[in-house]
Structures are given as structure tokens and as C-alpha cells.
């Protein structure tokens, strides 16, 4: 059975190019195109698509309004199509909160040529979306029901010596939000790689900083890693952990993509294995593919303790599944439980933390 895709975009060119990309794949087909959400609403009833691609900014009905109603009344996998602008990135962050599985960006220069260059990525994201676990949204803003931060660790040694290293992809923006919102203000420093294009990580970090008790920022490179702070890999560069004397530091570089990604989770995890060893705690969350699995195993071999999100709570179980299969994860848990599991481990073993 082919994946049935409905394309919703006010641009006839985008509809045409997206249709060409989808129909060029042997395992998927376009079952309808719509210039606005009103037409899309009828086509959803007629075609019962497996995946909807949705422009974030459209006439007649705002894409976000349509998405909010759709996820409340007829939840289905939605892949947002966004412009590479600050406004586009902020709207896309909101769309992910409302339940969109993932997003792709329109190229800045030649739409037709650029979209064709993206064929493999778009096809992969549609495949991942078709397998995603979709839940009905009961709140207009996801953060409103978030759990309160967990109690403080109250152990300066744990907070300053240990580090939490996080990797995620498809579904990860919301998983990271849920994870960080439970972190107390004295938690160890956190380094995060989320697969996301340039520009979007800044909006993502800003949004998290406004919601969390800890400080969240896009890593610029050269920052000292501090307790109560999280550093997110910028969309254009790998994020790595280094040491400078007694301090942990961030470093960013634009080396070649790893596992087709820059930033790559494997790159971050491997650097944590080398720089922090047993003082690192690894966390791998929802995501498509296998990025992070090999790096997590290296962390384990270097003495780190690692956690993976369980299948039931993942949007896409690819990355955690690969990490578990390779033997890199010590414990597996639901997304809601992971913050407590991580902090419980740190509270129990933090006094044993030693400089490496």
C-alpha cells in the first residue's frame, strides 16, 4: 500500500513540485492538492490521506488555526512546509506544539530547483510521518499541561561535575520541551542536538528559555557549560563538548554532515564520551534514523550512564530503537518519567563524580 499524501499550499508552483517529488517515490502517491484549508477540509474527507503537507502561512484560514482544529477533531500526521524566515520559524515552532510531526523548509532562491534538491529529505520525512504516533490535542498550547520542575538536587558537586547530553530528531522539539521543563534550576549543564535547520534553533531555544526554569540558549561556541543552563546545537553546525582546564566548554564546527545530519547527535555523543566519560549522562529521544546510536555506545564504553525514550511515548522510535539495539542504553523509560530517572541517577551517584 502506498502512502497517501495530500498537499495543501497556496503556491501552485510548490503544489506542483511537491507533487512531482511525492509521485517520483515508489511507495507514495499524491491523492489530492488544495490551495487553502477550506478545500483541504473536503479533500481530507474524500481521500483519507496518510500524511498532510501544510503550508504554515496561507489565505482564507491561517495554517495554524487549521492545524489546531485538525489535531483536535481528526488527528493525523502533518508535515509543515515553512519559509526560511524568523516569522516562518516562530510559526513552525507553534505548529510543532500543536501536533505537527515535522517540517521542511522552502529554499530561499530557486524554489523549483531547491525543492528538487530536497527530494530525499522530503520523502524520508513523509515516510517517518506516516509511521508517527499521533495523539489528539486537548489543549491549544502544549506547554499549559506540562509537569512542574522536579525538586532541586542540592548537591553542588553533582551539578558542576556531571553533564546531561541529549539527542533527538523527529518529534524531538516537543520531547525536549517536556524534558527540560522538569529540570530544576540547579541541574547539571545540558548539551542538546536536535535535527533542525539554521535559524529554527534560535527560535526553538528562545521559546524553551521562556518556558523553563533553567536558562536555554543556542550555542555560539566557547561558552563555559554551567549548571542550570542548556545549550542547543545551532542548525548550521555540529555541537561538541571540550575541556579547558577544570571547565567544560562548548565548541561548534561546520564539518561534514554525519549520518546526513549537521548538527549530528553522534558527533555530540562522541565528544561527550571523550571529554566527560563517566561524568556524562546520555539521553536519546524520539527521532527517525540511527543518528546517535553509535555515539551513545561510545559514551557507555567511556563510563557514561545512558537513557532512551520508550517506544510507546516516541513520535518515531527509530533513534532510540537503534541505540537500544546496539546496547548503548542502560535504561528505557517513558518521556514523562525520563527527567525523574535522570535526576534520580544523579542524586544517587553524583557524590561519586570525579574529574576525568
From TrEMBL:
Phosphorylated by CheA. Phosphorylation of the N-terminal regulatory domain activates the methylesterase activity. InterPro entries: CheB-like, CheB_C, CheY-like_superfamily, Sig_transdc_resp-reg_Me-estase, Sig_transdc_resp-reg_receiver. Its EC number is 3.1.1.61, 3.5.1.44. Gene3D superfamilies: 3.40.50.2300, Methylesterase CheB, C-terminal domain (3.40.50.180). It is an enzyme of class 3 (hydrolase). Involved in chemotaxis. Part of a chemotaxis signal transduction system that modulates chemotaxis in response to various stimuli. Catalyzes the demethylation of specific methylglutamate residues introduced into the chemoreceptors (methyl-accepting chemotaxis proteins or MCP) by CheR. Also mediates the irreversible deamidation of specific glutamine residues to glutamic acid. This is Protein-glutamate methylesterase/protein-glutamine glutaminase. The lineage of its organism: Bacteria, Pseudomonadati, Pseudomonadota, Betaproteobacteria, Burkholderiales.
Amino acid at each position: 500500500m502506498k502512502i497517501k499524501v495530500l498537499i495543501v499550499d497556496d503556491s501552485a508552483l510548490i503544489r506542483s513540485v511537491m507533487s512531482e517529488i511525492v509521485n517520483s517515490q515508489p511507495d507514495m502517491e499524491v491523492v489530492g492538492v488544495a490551495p487553502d484549508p477550506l478545500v483541504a477540509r473536503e479533500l481530507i474527507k474524500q481521500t483519507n490521506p496518510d500524511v498532510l503537507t501544510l503550508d504554515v502561512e496561507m489565505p482564507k484560514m491561517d495554517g495554524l488555526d487549521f492545524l489546531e482544529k485538525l489535531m483536535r477533531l481528526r488527528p493525523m500526521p502533518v508535515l509543515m512546509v515553512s519559509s526560511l524566515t524568523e516569522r516562518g520559524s516562530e510559526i513552525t515552532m507553534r505548529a510543532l506544539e500543536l501536533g505537527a510531526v515535522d517540517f521542511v523548509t522552502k529554499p530561499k532562491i530557486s524554489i523549483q530547483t531547491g525543492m528538487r534538491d530536497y527530494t530525499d529529505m522530503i520523502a524520508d520525512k513523509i515516510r517517518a510521518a506516516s509511521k508517527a504516533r499521533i495523539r489528539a490535542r486537548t489543549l491549544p498550547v502544549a506547554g499549559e499541561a506540562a509537569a512542574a520542575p522536579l525538586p532541586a538536587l542540592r548537591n553542588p558537586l553533582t551539578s558542576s561535575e556531571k553533564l546531561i547530553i541529549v539527542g533527538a530528531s523527529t518529534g524531538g522539539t516537543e520531547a525536549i520541551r517536556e524534558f527540560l521543563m522538569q529540570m530544576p534550576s540547579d541541574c547539571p549543564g545540558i548539551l542538546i542536538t536536535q535535527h533542525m535547520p539554521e535559524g529554527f534553533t534560535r527560535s526553538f531555544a528562545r521559546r524553551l528559555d521562556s518556558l523553563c526554569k533553567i536558562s536555554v540558549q543556542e550555542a555560539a561556541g566557547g561558552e563555559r557549560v554551567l549548571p542550570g543552563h542548556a545549550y542547543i546545537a545551532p542548525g548550521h553546525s555540529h555541537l561538541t563538548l571540550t575541556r579547558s582546564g577544570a571547565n567544560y566548554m562548548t565548541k561548534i564546527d561546520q564539518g561534514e554532515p554525519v549520518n546526513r545530519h549537521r548538527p549530528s547527535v553522534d558527533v555530540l555523543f562522541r565528544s561527550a564520551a571523550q571529554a566527560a566519560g563517566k561524568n556524562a549522562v546520555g539521553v536519546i529521544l524520539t527521532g527517525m534514523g540511527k543518528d546517535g546510536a553509535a555515539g551513545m555506545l561510545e559514551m557507555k564504553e567511556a563510563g557514561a550512564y545512558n537513557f532512551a525514550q520508550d517506544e510507546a511515548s516516541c513520535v518515531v522510535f527509530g533513534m532510540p530503537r537503534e541505540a537500544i539495539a546496539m546496547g548503548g542504553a542502560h535504561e528505557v523509560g517513558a518521556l514523562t518519567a525520563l527527567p525523574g530517572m535522570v535526576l534520580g541517577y544523579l542524586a544517587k551517584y553524583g557524590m561519586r563524580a570525579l574529574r576525568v
